[in-house]
Amino acid sequence: MAKLKVFYRRGPGQVTVYEQELLYDDGRLIVSSAPFRPSASLRAQLPRLADEEYRAIWSVALGEWHDLGKVYDLAGELVGYYCDIIRPARRTPAGLEVEDLFLDLWVFPEGRYLVLDEAEFAVALSRGWLDASTAARAKGELSRLIGEVESGRFPPAKVREF
Questions:
Q1: Which of 49, 54, 81, 141 has the maximum number of C-beta atoms within 10 A of its C-beta?
Q2: CA 28 to CA 96: how far, in whole Å?
Q3: What is the pTM assigned to this prediction?
Q4: Cβ–Cβ < 8 Å for 73, 109
């Protein structure tokens, strides 16, 4: 299976490289599979997520201000959807570059949701890691996603296919 390298930036000088299995790429939508380990802040807010590894199917639509991970437990049951608010991802010769804008959204399979990392977003803004325009765009994207969840239009049809 083809591999995809994702260069994930989160704050100045913080880059993590993930190697994922490429499942689909039509030139605009990229879908990959990778292990998912919940962060400590996510586990604190979602006690059901134990300190163990899950599997995620990641969808990144070029030009969009979020990515979306369908998170499954090791038995293959859908646990929820994890949305990172990001700058639109960019292809590079080495892979895919993603810049996290700190806000996240967790959506349960039944449609409830939680906004995550608002404190980290505030810190990033206060430290100048985000300018006012980017911060407003990030908040707007979060609000748009919440609107999709509340109206029952989440997740997108293409994401349901994987």
A1: 81
A2: 12
A3: 0.92
A4: no
Residue 130 reports pLDDT greater than 80 = yes
**Which residue carries 């030009």 as its tokens?**
63
**Residue spans of beta strands (DSSP E) within the chain:** 3-9, 15-25, 29-36, 54-61, 66-72, 78-92, 95-107, 113-116
Q: Regarding the domain delimited by 3-160, which CATH topology (the fold level of the hierarchy) does it fall under?
A: FomD barrel-like fold (2.40.380)
Q: Decide: 8 and 100 in contact? Cβ < 8 Å.
A: yes
> pLDDT tens digits, residue range 30-74?
999 999 888 777 777 776 777 677 999 999 999 999 999 999 988
User: Between 158 and 98, where is the model more confident?
Assistant: 98
Query: Phi and psi (nearest 5°) for 46?
Result: -130, 80
Residue pair 120/102 in contact by the 8 Å Cβ criterion = yes
Backbone angles phi, psi at 126, to 5 degrees: -65, -30
Reported confidence tier of residue 82, pLDDT bands at 50, 70, 90: very high
> Hey, where are the domains in the chain?
3-160
Instruction: Tell me if 152 sits within 8 A of 34, measured CB to CB.
Output: no
